[in-house]
Design goal:
The protein is globular and about 35 Å long. It has a single domain (2-130), classed as Flavodoxin domain (Rossmann fold). The chain has a five-stranded parallel sheet with strand order 2-1-3-4-5, sandwiched between helices. It is an alpha/beta fold. It is 31% helix and 25% strand. The protein has four helices and five strands, in the order βαββαβαβα. It has helices at 17-28, 68-75, 96-109, 123-130; strands at 2-8, 32-37, 51-56, 84-90, 113-120.
């Protein structure tokens, strides 16, 4: 399956270790996985993938607010309606569940079908989660 991981860390930085571990887990199951950066990409290629994974971080410990790059990349392209997707959020504080709910709401607003969501604790946990995609 062709899968894309949208990496959306709280601030502009290289691909976080948990995103690379998520990719490693998915690749080990035979999937073709690409990573795109929500801060620099425009989302033009998203409709070409069978499954879309958003791996994000909340921008603050309290409140559950998501980076603006997430809504920007999802809103730039049509053709996401009905796409199967997963929402993963790195655990950052006491309101991580609220942030995950906000992420899923943003994805569903664009018509995506979020059929899996989880909170990532660390890189080994992310790799284990990646092995369950498409299983």
């Amino acid at each position: 399956m062709r899968i894309v991981i949208i990496s959306a860390p709280a601030h502009r930085k290289p691909v976080p270790d948990y995103v690379a571990a998520l990719q490693k887990g998915m690749t080990s199951m035979g999937h073709q996985v690409d990573i795109i950066d929500a801060w620099t990409e425009d989302g033009f290629r998203l409709p070409g993938y069978e499954y879309i994974v958003v791996a994000a971080e909340a921008i603050s410990l309290f409140g559950g607010k998501m980076p603006e790059a997430v809504s920007k990349i999802l809103a730039t392209r049509s053709g996401l309606g009905g796409k199967k997707s997963a929402a993963f959020l790195r655990k950052t504080g006491p309101f991580t569940a609220k942030a995950l709910s906000n992420l899923m709401r943003a994805m569903e607003k664009e018509g995506m079908v979020v059929n899996w969501s989880d909170i990532i604790l660390n890189a080994p946990h992310a790799e284990a989660l990646g092995k369950h995609i498409g299983a």
